[in-house]
Specification:
The complex is a heterodimer of chains A (310) and B (265). Chain A has helices at residues 2-24, 31-40, 43-47, 50-67, 126-146, 240-273, 290-306; strands at 71-73, 80-82, 88-90, 93-96, 101-106, 111-117, 150-158, 169-181, 186-199, 204-217, 222-236. Chain A is an alpha+beta fold and 310 residues long. With 265 residues, chain B is of the alpha+beta class. Chain B has two domains: 1-38, no CATH class; 81-251, Aspartate Aminotransferase, domain 1, CATH 3.90.1150. In chain B, α4 packs parallel to α5 (213-251). The longest helix of chain B is centred in the C-terminal third of the chain and has 39 residues, at 213-251. The chains are: A alpha+beta (310), B alpha+beta (265). Chain A: Heterodimer of an alpha and a beta subunit.
Amino acid sequence: MADEEEEAELSEKQKIEIAKWFLLNSPPGEIQYVAKEIVSADVKSILNDDDLFHEAASDAFSLYNKSHLISLKMPGRSGDLLVTTFGELEVNAYLDPRTAQVAKVDHVKQVCTEVRPATDEELPSPYIEEFRCALDAEILKYVGEAYPKGVCSVYCVNGKDVEGPGSDFELVVVISAARHSPQNFCNGSWRSVWNILFKDDQQIVEVKGKMQVGAHYFEEGNVQLDAKHECKDSTLFQAPEDCALAISSIICHHETEYLASLEASYLNLPDSTFKDLRRKLPVTRTLFPWHNTLQFSLTRDISKELGIGK
Amino acid sequence: MEAAMGLMRRIPPKHTDTALSALLSLLPHHSSDLLSQVDQPLQVLCDADCGKEFILCEYNRDADSYRSPWSNKYYPPLEDGSLPSLELRKLEIEANDIFTVYCDQYYEGGTSSVYMWEDDNEGFAACFLIKKDGSKTGQGRRGYLEEGGWDAIHVIEVGPEEEGTTNYRLTSTVMLTLTTNNESSGTFSLSGSLRRQEKQLKNIIDMSMRLSIAEGHICNMGRMIEEMESKLRNSLDQVYFGKTREMVCTLRPPSEVAQMRMPES
C-alpha cells in the first residue's frame, strides 16, 4: 500500500513538471493561452488539487515572465515596469530604477498590483546613479526612435554602493519589445540584455550583449522563429554623459547590424538554405515525369514477363 | 483532446517529440487519438536484408515491429505480422521504386518509404514518407545548415473504382527545422509544421488503355503528392517564414538604419 501511495505522489510531481514544461515553452505572449489549454486538457483534474496546480503555475509564470522580460503597466501614471531578474528584490517585488519605485507583481495574472517608493538601501549610491541615469536617458531616446513599442530599463547589478572613483561597477541595459496580435495569428518579441562593466583600473568600459528574437505564426500551422546572437565591444571610461552617449551608440550599432543580418538570413532562405532541404524543382528542372516512369516500369514489367530482364 | 491539439499548435515544432510524450503520459486514455492526430518527426530503421533504410510510422507497425518496404519483412522479426495482399504488394514495390527516384530528384538524398494496405470499403490506402537531413553533417549538399530536417507524410485514401474513375483523398504533413549559425548573425532557427488535405476525382486509366489500373494509381497519387509538396514548400517559404519576418520588422523597423545616431562628442 505504501508503495502505491508513493507512486501516486511521484506521478503527481511529474504532472506538475509536465504542466510547467508546457508553460515555460509557451511562445512570446502566449503563456495565458497555454495555461488555459492545460487546464482544459484535464491536467488540472488529474492533478486533483488546485493548490498544487497553482504552485506549478506561479513557479512557471514567474520564470517565464522574467526570461521573456515582460513589461507591465504600473498603477498611477508611473509608466511600464520590466520584470527582470536584475530588478528582482524579493519574490513578486521588482525595482523600477527610473521612477525609484518597487512594484508588486502578480505573476500568474501578469499585472502590477501596487507600487511603493524604493528605500535608500534598494537604490544605488549617488555616484553610480549619475552613470545609470545618464545612460537611461540615452537608451530611452534610442529605444523611442528604434522600437515602436519598446520598453527599457537600466539596472546596477554590481557595486551599487560604490561612492566614487576607484572601484569597478556593472550596469545592465534591458530592452524589450513585444507585439501580440492573436487575431492575426502572430506574436513576437525582441529582447536584448547588455552587460556594461565599468573597469576603474583600466579606465575602460566593456560591453557584452545578448539579443534574442522570437516569432510565432499559427494560422493553420505552426511556424516559429528563434534567433539569438551575442556580441562584445568596449569604450573608454569617461564622464557619465560621455559614457552614456558612447554606450548607447554601441548598442544602437550592434542591434542595427543584427537586424540587418536577420534580414540577410531571411533573404538567403529561398535560394540557398531551403534548397538543402527540398528543391523547388527536381534536378532536371522540370516536373517529375510520372508518365515516363510508368512507361519505364511498364517495359520492365514486360521484359520480366518475357523473361529477358534478369 | 481539443485542448491537447491546441497545445501542440503552440509548442515550438522542434519540441514536438517531448510535447507528445508529455501529453501521452498525462492523457493515457487519449493515446490512440494523440498518436494518430499529432504528427511526429520520422524515425528510420535499417533493413538488414538489403542494407537499406526504411521509415517507421503507424502504418507499417505491427506490435513492436515495423515492416520494411524493401524486403517485406518485419524488424525486429515478427511471426504472422500483417502483410498487404499480393496484388497490393506488387503496387507497393512499384511505388517504392518510383518514389526513390522522385525523392532523389527533389531532395538530392533523403530516405523514402511507401506503405499500402487494404481498407474496409473496397479501396486501399497508401502512405508516402520522406525524411531528409539537410544539415551539413547530413545530406545538405551546399552546407548552409547547421541543423536541418524535412519530414513529409502523405496519406492517400483511394476509393473503390466506379466507371474508370476513383476518389483520392490526400492528407499531407510537412515538418521542418532549419538552423544556420555563424559568427556575425548568431543562431537563426526556424521550425514549422503544416498539415493540408485535398480531394480529387481522377480517371484511373488516364493515359493509355494498355496501362494497368495499378500503374494509373501510382501516376495519379504521385502527381497529387508532387503538387501538394510544392504547395507546402511554397507556403512555408513565402507565407509562414514571411510572416515571422514581418513580425521582426514590426518589432524593430529597419528604416531606423538611416537615422543611426553618432556620438556628438
